[in-house]
Amino acid sequence: MLLPGDPARVLRVADFLDEWKEIAFNREFRTITGTYRGMPVTVTSTGIGGASAAIAVEELAACGVRTMIRIGSAGAVQPGIAIGDLIIAQGAVREDGASRMYVPEAYPAVASPRLTMALEDACRKLSVPWHSGLVRSHDSFYIDEEAALMAQWNRKGVLGSDMETAALLTVARLRGVEAAAILNNVVLYEGDVKEGVGEYVDETTAAAEGEKREIKVALEALYHSCDESAL
C-alpha cells in the first residue's frame, strides 16, 4: 500500500489507478482502494508528523497490511538535490518524538532492502532524477536551531529532511511490516521552507512534477515486487 501524508495527495494517486473508491475519511486519515495494472492497491494518508504516521501504521498493520511505501515530501540537506528530485530513504535519523516512545534512539530506523531496491529499479526504468541514502525525521520546521541542525546533518551526508519516515520505518519494523519511503524534494538546501511549500501547492511547478514521478515510481515498485495479498 501507499502512504502519502496529505489527504489531498490520496486523490492525486487515484488519478494513476485503473479504478478506485474511497472507503474512509476521518481527520487526517483518508483511505481509498483500487487497482493499478490489475494489482489491488490501498492508499491511506498519514497526516503531518510521526505521531499520526505511527497511528496509521499501527491500525493498518492490525488490519493485515504487510507492505507500506511512504510517498512524501522533503527538504534537501545536500546542495546537489534539485526541486522535484526523488530521495529514497535507506534509513532515517530518528529526531522525532513518536519513534522514541517505542524504542530507544539506538534502535535503527531502516527501510526494507527489497522495497528499497524495487524503488531504485523503478527510478532507473522511468529515467527520473533520484538519490538514495539517509534522511532525517524531525518534529518542526521552525525551531530556532534548524539551520545549525541542517548544517550538521549536511556534514554527515544526510540527503533530506522530513517528519514521518523515521516513525514509519521504526513502527513498521516492530510490527513485522515491510516499509520503505520515497520523498519528493520541495525545498533546496538552505532554501526558504515557507516558499518551497507554497510553490509545491502550485501544480505547474517542478515540485508538483516530482510528486507525479514519485507516485508512478512507487506504484511500479509495488507492481514488480509485492505479493498482491499484502497490499
UniProtKB/TrEMBL annotation:
<dbReference type="Pfam" id="PF01048">
    <property type="entry name" value="PNP_UDP_1"/>
</dbReference>
<protein>
    <recommendedName>
        <fullName>Uridine phosphorylase</fullName>
        <ecNumber>2.4.2.3</ecNumber>
    </recommendedName>
</protein>
<dbReference type="InterPro" id="IPR035994">
    <property type="entry name" value="Nucleoside_phosphorylase_sf"/>
</dbReference>
<keyword id="KW-0328">Glycosyltransferase</keyword>
<dbReference type="InterPro" id="IPR000845">
    <property type="entry name" value="Nucleoside_phosphorylase_d"/>
</dbReference>
<feature type="domain" description="Nucleoside phosphorylase">
    <location>
        <begin position="2"/>
        <end position="183"/>
    </location>
</feature>
<dbReference type="GO" id="GO:0004850">
    <property type="term" value="F:uridine phosphorylase activity"/>
</dbReference>
<dbReference type="GO" id="GO:0009164">
    <property type="term" value="P:nucleoside catabolic process"/>
</dbReference>
<dbReference type="InterPro" id="IPR018016">
    <property type="entry name" value="Nucleoside_phosphorylase_CS"/>
</dbReference>
<comment type="similarity">
    <text>Belongs to the PNP/UDP phosphorylase family.</text>
</comment>
<keyword id="KW-0808">Transferase</keyword>
<dbReference type="GO" id="GO:0005829">
    <property type="term" value="C:cytosol"/>
</dbReference>
